[in-house]
Amino acid sequence: MSVSEKYRKDLEEICAHRYDLGGDLWTSEDKRILKGSPFSLIESVQYLLEIGMKPEEPLLMEAADLLFSLWREDGRFQVYPKGALYPCQTIHVLNTLGRLGYAKDRRLQRTFQHLLEIQHEDGGWRCQKFSYGHGPETEFSNPFPTLIALDAFRYTTWINQKEELNEAIEFLLRHWTTKLPLGPCHYGIGTLFSQVEYPFRTYNLFYYVYVLSYYDCAKGDPRFLDALSQLRSKTEDGQIVVERSVPKLSKLSFCKKGEKSALATMKYNEILKNLKHQ
């Protein structure tokens, strides 16, 4: 498999969890692709890509085939055998397939269009699932799925072209100012958000700055620059130090908590490169 010797043990550790849930490819027997965190199918594919596995590798092509098998004609993905289909689920699958190089696939083109069709009035995306009741904050979009959606749109020709995406950016920049828990899932900006997490698994400062750095309307905005300054203040000798990780990922060398990460630093350097091209 196309992974350097440096990350060979990481590859073995990730693959060791392939059958944890009773099915293949980090899924349950009924193919629940979001189950089993932090070694769900969606997350495990991300780790493999991070350590350098090529999308053309048979393992990742199998994963892509499985994900596409869940696609529906209206653009959504049926990630559970039964139950409601939520935008956040579709967004997770879309972003993963985009990272695998399938953004131009006609099925994903329909999914991207579907997201634009269901975009919330505040510019983001939200699900009709109210785990925390129906307070006024739940009238807003969910910031984290919105961030992932913008991550996915990076792989399209629509980036920096569609006003709808600028509206999503503005929604996230406003959140930087208010920092209040927003959306039915209550995503806020606080202590945990400010801790540098890698790989990108949750709504956090590093992922926030990384995605927004690809969008022209964010690059010169004082709110984005403030977030960037906070991230920069956490680097050591220009390198990213992982501040937060889950214990189950402790065996992975590329994202050790409390240590400098070469691969995370590559992501940080992408941010700096994006800003040079304003």
Question: How would you describe what is shown here?
Answer:
By secondary structure, this protein is mainly alpha-helical. It folds into three domains: 1-69, no CATH class; 70-185, no CATH class; 190-278, no CATH class. It is 45% helix and 0% strand. The protein has twelve helices and no strands. Helix 4 runs antiparallel to helix 5, helix 4 (87-99) packs parallel to helix 6 and helix 9 crosses helix 11 (222-232). The mean pLDDT is 95.
Search tags:
278 residues, mainly alpha, 3 domains, 12 helices, Prenyltransferase and squalene oxidase repeat-containing protein
Can you give me a brief rundown of this structure?
The protein is 45% helix and 0% strand. The protein is mainly α.
Overall number of domains: 3
Please report the total strand number as a whole number.
0
Low-confidence stretches: none
Question: N-to-C SSE series?
Answer: HHHHHHHHHHHH
Biggest sheet descriptor: none
Count of alpha and pi helical runs = 12
Helical fraction: 40-55%
